[in-house]
Amino acid sequence: TRRSAASARRVARVSLVVRATADAVPKPKKPQQMLVYAPPHPLIKHWLALLRSEYTPPQMFRSACAELGRLLIYEAVRDFLPTIEQQVQTPLGAVADATLCDPTKPIKVVPILRAGLVLLEQAGQVMPFQETYHVGYVRDPKTLQATAYLNKLPAKVSPDDLFLITDPMLATGGTIVQVIEDIVSRGGKAENIRVVAVVVAPPALKKLADRFPGLKVYTAMIDEQVDERGYIIPGLGDAGDRAYGTP
Ligand code: URA
């Protein structure tokens, strides 16, 4: 009948919408494999282009980086933020089913100083509940070895604790591997850790994939190479220096 054909069309349209929503959560090809996801979004490409340009001044660099961090964090927590189901009273005297972020399970965000801080600037506007644990590393320019000068990670970590680490540039992977190893040695699990970075390169990705299957990395771009000084090419230069105008 005409009515049942119309209802079948409605069902088909609805199931298309549902499928599109489910697809928005990226999955690795095999369950125990690291996922690297570069969301194909024009705004992400736009802010990355500003960061790459050598003519972008520090103030603009910082705000582009913060904006990119906001978009990448939004993607990274899509299937990560713990939620609770409640009911809320609307101004019309009606009751609506509601999903809210769980205030008892704040995401533990870990900015790697200096530049990771800029990526997190807008995180408080993306996630209603979060705790911040700063870590700071310096890289020896000759050996490219990273050494910690600040570590505010919690002494004890439960395997269920959710971590979001921000570091704009994953080049050789030396620093990020140390931070994740530290979280895991305190009791954390790689599957409960997400990394947000602006640009990543194959050496870092290989190290992370070998050591931490189950990890998820969200980035604007995978670049091709790292030069002998540890810079990503084409990259965007030294993210910390550019964000803070350090000569
Ligand atoms: N850190 C940076 O700031 N830039 C790079 O290209 C690599 C590491």
UniProtKB/TrEMBL annotation:
Q: Which UniProt keywords apply?
A: Allosteric enzyme, Glycosyltransferase, GTP-binding, Nucleotide-binding, Transferase
According to UniProt, this protein's pathway is:
Pyrimidine metabolism; UMP biosynthesis via salvage pathway; UMP from uracil: step 1/1
Which Gene Ontology molecular-function terms are recorded?
Answer: GTP binding; uracil phosphoribosyltransferase activity
Q: Name one GO cellular component term.
A: cytoplasm
What cofactor does this one take? Mg(2+)
Enumerate the Pfam families for this protein. UPRTase (PF14681)
Superkingdom of this entry's organism? Answer: Eukaryota
Q: Which GO terms describe its biological process?
A: UMP salvage; uracil salvage
Q: Which CDD domains match?
A: PRTases_typeI
Q: Residue ranges of the Phosphoribosyltransferase domain?
A: 39-246
**EC supergroup of this enzyme:** transferase
Q: What is its EC number?
A: 2.4.2.9
Similarity remark: Belongs to the UPRTase family.
Spell out the protein name for this chain.
uracil phosphoribosyltransferase
